[in-house]
Amino acid sequence: MKHKDGKPGPQGDKSSRLVPMSIMFIVLCGFSFYLGGIFCSEKNRFNTKNVARDVQSPKISVATPLQIKPTEFPVCSSDYQDYTPCTDPRKWKKYGLQRLSFMERHCPPVYERKECLVPPPDGYKPPIKWPKSRDECWYRNVPYDWINKQKSNQHWLRKEGEKFLFPGGGTMFPRGVGAYVDLMQDLIPEMTDGTVRTAIDTGCGVASWGGDLLDRGILTVSLAPRDNHEAQVQFALERGIPAILGIISTQRLPFPSNSFDMAHCSRCLIPWTEFGGIYLLEIHRILRPGGFWVLSGPPVNYKNRWRGWNTTVEEQRSDYEKLQELLTSMCFKLYSTKDDIAVWQKSSDNSCYNQLAKPDVYPPKCDDSLEPDSAWYTPLRSCVVVPNPKLKKSALTAITKWPERLHTAPERISDVHGGSASTFKHDDSKWTVRVKHYKKLLPAIGTNKIRNVMDMNTAYGGFAAALVDDPLWVMNVVSSYAANTLPVVFDRGLIGTYHDWCEAFSTYPRTYDLLHLDGLFTAESQRCDMKYVLLEMDRIVRPNGYAIIRESSYFVDAVATIAKGMRWGCRKEDTEYGVEKEKILICQKKLWNSPNKSSR
Predict the structure, then answer these.
(1) In sequence order, what DSSP letters do the residues of 150-202 get, joined into one string?
(2) In the structure, what pLDDT confidence band is assigned to residue 293 with cuts at 50, 70 and 90?
(3) What's the topology of domain 174-394?
(4) SS3 for 505?
(5) Which residues contact 51 (CB under 8 A, 6 or more apart)?
(6) Which sequence ranges are marked TM in the entry (predicted)?
């Protein structure tokens, strides 16, 4: 029976209200089990409370290792042999011409990413070993004739048979780079006593300047864009000289403030006085207080050189005066000059910057909202980044000289959360032990088989410091999403860059002999697809090159599966501590030839 509204109504049958004894018995039994369950669950809750408190390991260490389906990656077509995803000339027409911003980083969206292996050029050979590689490389490894035809008269390089030879010439050093640097050392004595340790060469050519400085104890980052010279940075890395793709355009360079001891431009064609001197302001930002800026070429020595520059003496005088005025406004002083070289020094005295507080002064002081070390897709601004006055030991005149500088806790380590002199010392000791173990697992470390090395996610540069006596150099990479430890790396006399491993690195294919990572996938797996990170590693490591992948046990097997699909050979090893929660993969990329000719 139902009401008019459809809801059930009370039943009129009296017998239907009687509850059989059997049903009552079942209800009572069920109630007793319910009370017993409450008691047992309460008892278990109190008994397991202390156990839960004692478990310190993260869930990832006890979880079932990540398993993925094996995939064999195809080979990209041969026209991708020098593919640089974020500086791809094929995409330049999509971006603006203003200040050559099309040459900056423009990474492809996810749906355009390549899932194939970048092939070597036809006839590729294992690179010539260091130090012989500084003077010659295989033509087929970097098969570009344009730079040879355009610059052979300036002795940048010349082709002989199957090789390119590098005689050490340059636009502004026709007598050779050695004589050029000798003159520079006469002007800057600090280059000879361990004061100057790190340098940046903007518009580096084939990096002969940086190559010469290696023998003088100075570590240089050679910087050039992917331009119509085709392969400046690729030539540098093929020679075994540190280099990275980059351009001063609309965004900051990927380095922290107050990092380099010296900056150099040898007729690098950067219009220093244009756009309000914004490019000079970026050099000022990355140069350490007391650091040197060296310029050779126009408008230096304009009285004697102007006829060869297709200009007039009046125009060159005006450019030089404008340059000097801009540098003075940024607290640079002319340090020394001779022939074609002029040297300015950035002030170590912060009182110089007081003038920037005056109204209508240009360039003005940057406001506090602009982080000095923010340098990953950060726009350039027309203002002066004033060094932190609290830092008393970071200026070039105050920092410890090389090589003692390498193992001295930098002042800026206190800016890192949890950073201190003791944590720095502990990190140093830890990496000494780890690298000793690595050399047992990979005896090629320390030999001429490994020259160009990258630490893909460093903290304080401890891995690089432990390798400093070996015939190699290390590019220290700090994630743009991690703690800002890159200033510490530079302060101890090492080099590095910011990067986000969800994107491609700013280098050519086949440019590193060894890649090292320590828990990178554990740290970044929530943001970055592991497959694309490993494909990027395959792009930049040389055939027959190596990777040391130190990871949690959760990721190791999955990494090995992907690596097999990239034609790598890997073996799993214990760490120096022999713990189960962490393992080491020692991998080697195989040398193979491309079967593909059509675009993929």
Answers:
(1) HHGGGTS-EEETTEEE-----TT-TT-HHHHHHHHHHH-GGGTTTS--EEEEE
(2) very high
(3) Rossmann fold (3.40.50)
(4) coil
(5) none
(6) 21-39
Per-residue pLDDT, 135: 94
Question: Which CATH superfamily, name and number, covers 401-589?
Answer: Vaccinia Virus protein VP39 (3.40.50.150)
Q: How far, rounded to the nearest angstrom, does the alpha carbon of residue 211 sit from its chain's CA centroid?
A: 20
Strand partners of residue 584:
550, 573
Question: Can 174-394 and 401-589 be said to share one CATH topology?
Answer: yes
Element (H, E) at 34: helix 21-54
Q: How far apart are CA 260 and CA 271, in angstroms?
A: 21
Q: Give helix 553-565 / helix 530-540 axis angle, nearest 10°.
A: 50
pTM for this prediction: 0.88
pLDDT tens digits, residue range 370-392?
A: 899 999 999 999 999 999 999 99
> Residue 95: which residues within 8 A CB-CB, separation 6 or more?
101, 102, 104, 106
pLDDT in tens, 61-73: 446 889 889 999 9
Structure confidence at residue 147 (pLDDT): 63
Integer-rounded Cα radius of gyration of the chain: 31
Q: Could you state, in order of their start, the residue ranges of all structural domains in the chain?
A: 174-394, 401-589
- State how far the Cα of 148 lies from the Cα of 403, in Å rounded to an integer: 38
Q: Give the pLDDT of residue 148.
A: 60
